Amino acid sequence: MMIIPNTRTSPSKPNGFQSSVIVLLAFMLMAAAISVFMGQDNSWDLRNYHLYNAYAFITDRSQLDILPAQLQSFFNPLPDILLLNLIGNYKPIIVGMLLGMIHGINSFLIFKIAQVVLFKLQPFQLSFRNISLQITPFKVSIFLGIAALVAPMSIMLMGTSYHDNLVSIPLFISILLIVMILQSPHENQSLLLILAGISAGISFGLKMTSAIYIIAVGLTLFIVVREWSTKIKTGFQFTGGVLVGIMTSGGFWYVKMWKSYKNPFFPWFNNIFHSPELLDINIRDARYLPTSFLDGLLYPIYFMYNSSFNYHQGGFRDMRFAVLYLLIAIFCIVVVRNKFLGKQKKPLTPESQFIILLSCFAYVIWLIQFSIYRYIFLLEGLAFLSIAIILIHLFQSSKTSMGILSLLVLISLSSASYPKHQRLDWRDHYINGQIPDLEGLDSAVIILGGKRPSAFFIPGFPVTTRFVRLSSNMHGYLSPDSKFKKDSYALTQNHPGPFYLLSWEKFLYTEQNFLHYFNMEVDTTQRWHLQNPHEPELTFWKVNRE
Question: Is residue 377 within 8 Å of residue 164, measured between CB atoms?
Answer without folding.
Answer: yes
